[in-house]
Design goal:
The protein is 62% helix and 7% strand. It is mainly alpha-helical. A two-stranded antiparallel ribbon has the order 1-2. Strand 1 and strand 2 (107-111) form a beta hairpin.
C-alpha cells in the first residue's frame, strides 16, 4: 500500500484524453457522413436500408450474382428481413429477383436500370462528400491508429 505522499503510479498503457478525442472525432465523422448519406437516399425516396441494399447488390464481389442470403449477411439483417426489403425494392422496380439456374432454392438479385440510376446519383454525391472531407478523415484515421497502439 502506498502512503498518501507517494505519487500514484502511471499506467503507460492508459488511454489519454487525445485517445478519447480521436475516438470521438472518428465516431462523429462517421455519423456526419451517415446522416449526409441518409439525406441523399431520402431525396430519392429511399430509406437508408434500401440505399444500402442497392449498394450491396452493385458492390457484390462474388463470381456469382448476389443472393438474398448474401444480402442479409452484407446488411447484417435476418434473412426474412432481407426478403421483405427486396420485395419493396422489386415493387418499386429498382431490383429484380429470380431463382438461380443451378439451385432453384437460391434467389439472386440484380439492379434494374432505375435502381442503378438512383444508386449512381446517390453514390456520386456521397463520393464528393468523402472527397471534400478526405483530409479530415486522414487525420482522424491517423489519430485512431495512434490511439490503438498495442498494449504492453
Amino acid at each position: 500500500m502506498r502512503s498518501p505522499s507517494e505519487p500514484a503510479s502511471i499506467d503507460p498503457d492508459a488511454l489519454t484524453p487525445d485517445d478519447y478525442r480521436a475516438l470521438g472525432d472518428f465516431r462523429h465523422a462517421i455519423r456526419q457522413f451517415l446522416a449526409f448519406s441518409e439525406d441523399g437516399a431520402k431525396a430519392h425516396g429511399l430509406t437508408s436500408q434500401q440505399h444500402q441494399a442497392l449498394l450491396a447488390i452493385k458492390a457484390h464481389p462474388g463470381p456469382e450474382p448476389i443472393s438474398i442470403g448474401d444480402l442479409s449477411r452484407s446488411l447484417l439483417i435476418k434473412n426474412h428481413s432481407a426478403v421483405e426489403l427486396v420485395a419493396r425494392l422489386v415493387e418499386r422496380d429498382l431490383v429484380s429477383r429470380r431463382d438461380a439456374d443451378a439451385d432453384r432454392r437460391r434467389v439472386i438479385l440484380a439492379l434494374r436500370p432505375r435502381g442503378a440510376e438512383i444508386l449512381e446519383a446517390i453514390s456520386r454525391r456521397n463520393l464528393e462528400r468523402l472527397n471534400d472531407g478526405a483530409d479530415i478523415l486522414v487525420e482522424i484515421v491517423g489519430a485512431a491508429r495512434r490511439a490503438a497502439r498495442p498494449s504492453r
